[in-house]
Amino acid sequence: MIKLNRPVCPHPDALARGNYKHPANKEALKAANSDKCMYCESKISQISFAEIEHFKPKDNDKFPHLEFVWENLGYSCQKCNNQKSNKFHNDTPYIDPYHDEPANYFYAAGTWLFVKNGCERADLSIRDIGLNRPELLEKRLEKITEIQKAITACYRTGNVSLRDFALAELRREAETKKEYSFFVKALISAHAV
Ligand SMILES: [Zn+2]
For the HNH domain, which residue ranges apply (predicted)? Predict the structure, then answer.
């Protein structure tokens, strides 16, 4: 999970009319997230259909008044959205990437997402949204294996300027728009690249 910036709602009228799935609004959230799920950082169009996620569940017995509130909407993959379902803990809300800085609550070690300082909100986020589910571990492994191989290759070259160029290219893989950047960034920092 990484920090996301909430875009300005391009079509507030749609929300006022009771439509939270307006294409222009969905597109704005997609662009702001670089097409990545707000929770798991998977590029959504590569794995499934994108969904408009209600951070606080819109169910009648939960937060129905927040169903059409822009600040409660996010862009997520079906898997995270389904797994989170209508769960929510008032006293220990999930980490909200549009509001919280996830790096203050989580750290990445290899393919796993861990909780910093025993934070219960982060722990519940991992468990309830399934942020270490097998298929995510597999996809992260593919990504970090590829990066690890590239780092090793960089250090094996005798040509320093070529190596520096390749390392600079690798650092771009940790940019926020890239898939699983939270994990790639951790790997790259471990090598002091
Ligand atoms: Zn997801």
Answer: 37-87
CA 143 to chain CA centroid, nearest Å? 15
What letter does residue 179 receive in the DSSP assignment? T
Q: Which residues place a Cβ less than 5 A from the ion ligand 1?
A: 37, 39-40, 77, 80
Q: Decide: helix, strand or coil at residue 79.
A: helix
Q: How far is the CA of 162 from the centre of ligand 1 (A)?
A: 37
Residue 137 near residue 112, CB atoms below 8 Å: yes
Contacts 24+ apart (CB under 8 A), 136-141: 136/40, 136/42, 137/111, 137/112, 139/42, 139/179, 139/180, 140/111, 140/180, 140/183, 141/111
Write out pLDDT tens, residues 142-165.
999 999 999 888 888 888 888 888
Nearest in space to 141 (alpha carbons), one of 111, 176, 119, 161: 111
Outline where 67-159 has alpha helix (H): 78-84, 120-129, 134-156
